[in-house]
Fold:
Amino acid sequence: MSDVRPIGSRWELFVDDYLIEKMNGAALRLHSPQDEGVVLQYDKPWEGRFCGYATVIKDGEVYRLYYRGLPSAGRDGSDAEVTCYAESKDGIHWTKPNLGLFEVNGTRENNVLLAGMAPFAHNFCPMLDTRKGVPPSERYKALAGTHESGLVAFVSADGVRWKKLRERAVFTEGAFDSQNVPFWSEHEQCYLCYFRTFKDGFRRIARTTSTDFLHWTKPVLMEYGDKPIEHLYTNQTHPYWRAPHIYVSIAARFLPGRRVLTEEQAKAIGVDPGYFDDCSDAVFMTTRGGNRYDRTFMEAFIRPGIGLENWVSRTNYPALNVVPINEREMSVYVNQNYGQLTAHLRRYSLRTDGFTSVNAPYAGGEMVTKPLQFSGRELVLNFATSAAGGIRVEIQDAAGKPIPRYTLEESVETVGNEIERVVRWRLGSDVSPLAGQVIRLRFVMKDADLFAVRFR
Structure:
């Protein structure tokens, strides 16, 4: 069968219809991250109200934060821009170390890791290179630059001290006037970069690939199927760590000219006069490679908060990367209060895998998967039910006929709220006799959310 999904033992999230054949009474649901408050104020003299383009990287036990520092509005790529650094042991409490690398505002006691190298501090975007065999001196990589300079590649051994991989640009075919996002894809076995371009007056996203971080392919424009084109200012596309074949994009949706504040209100909150004519929020997209984003959800993933300060230009821009906090929780970070003296980074939390789910109401619903093949001995769910709800699982053959021992009648109802729970039937949980065969899964649910599944 040509449409069989070979999922092996990997996690599959219900962020799209990749596994879903049909639903009856159930539907895909987008979940809202929980506001956990401000975690970092941009309050140093070299930071200020125009900080932006943040990246968060979890490297072992250390969380690293990179962001542009800019106290006053000005030309993109000016010498006033610096790249700042903060770090954390838990992803919640952050410190700004005195790096002593560059003199800024008359002192080396600062958290600046790039200065005096215009235009590269404008949108310096680092990555942790997870490619096997990468030289230790190039364990961290970054791309930075504007349309005039092109994207220049940087490398670092420790994520703090950087040097250019070479002087001339490695890629020049783009606008580049926001965050240009590189990463190593284990799934596609190449480096990817998702970057800013324009088409028909809209801020769009394009993609290019490389095998060595120096030579990049001709870019392709990302498409959205039959969904409407919107201005997407930053794309923040990255592999999700639990399922790296799925690239998650928490993009900044920009509404140019959609003014919410009056001039009097803008003056009252102290926003820069040039930065209250527009508004923004965050949207959720995914891609599994190629030049198409899945935009199942057009609704906002993170809405602007209560207060006029949340409804100004270029605020609510997500940082690059969703990172785990512990086994149950992950974090999304968002730049807010742009153009204001109160500019800061805010943390939002989600349950692990909890971007979206197959949701069934109290009245009940069902979902049947497309044909798939797996490896492993057990079926594991990331799920949540109410006390009255539950999930039963039936395994069918490719034609949709229930397989004895794994029928709905023999299923033990799964009730609770867990990141990983093994599914059971009356005779146990062992599904290894079906490994390698083409099967379908049928989920019969009541007042429940199914976030992800895997065999192991």
Q: What stands out?
A: The mean pLDDT is 97. Residues 34-351 form a domain with the Tachylectin-2; Chain A fold (CATH 2.115.10.20).
